[in-house]
């Protein structure tokens, strides 16, 4: 007489566990990729904010527009950051003093000096470079920074401004804004 089986055999349990583990590994990898994508999206939003910040500052100080950048581009990073002494941004400033203050505030924001902890700057973009191109009333702002993931493409389809603004590298991300200021 055949024996009646009640329950699962050890082989069935092991196969079920292998399938469950493979599924969980996939879910964990998806979670990691989702976190990286979310972080890169946040960085893109920050770059957009910083680019629009300097554009708005330039619109408020149109008489100094050509001194914010140049037609060949002016590169900004944290290395050349010095606080202006003549004007603190609170008192009435000349247009030249206001431009120096605007550039100082903008640079300190995108390198993260406005948010610090015991280890140093934590805000801003990682290893950022910003370039300002001013040609008459046309303004181009390029923000580049280091990303957590490698970029599989090239920058050959980008504008000349992007190509000349420290945009090469496998992990460099780029944000570019073109506008006119009158």
TrEMBL record:
Superkingdom of origin: Bacteria
Can you name this protein?
Type IV pilus modification protein PilV
Spans through the membrane = 7-28
Keywords attached to this Swiss-Prot or TrEMBL record, sorted alphabetically, are: Membrane, Transmembrane, Transmembrane helix
Provide the Type IV pilin Tt1218-like domain boundaries: 37-103
Q: Name one Pfam family in it.
A: N_methyl
State the species of origin: Shewanella frigidimarina (strain NCIMB 400)
Return the InterPro entries for the record: N_methyl_site, Pilus_4_PilV, Tt1218-like_dom
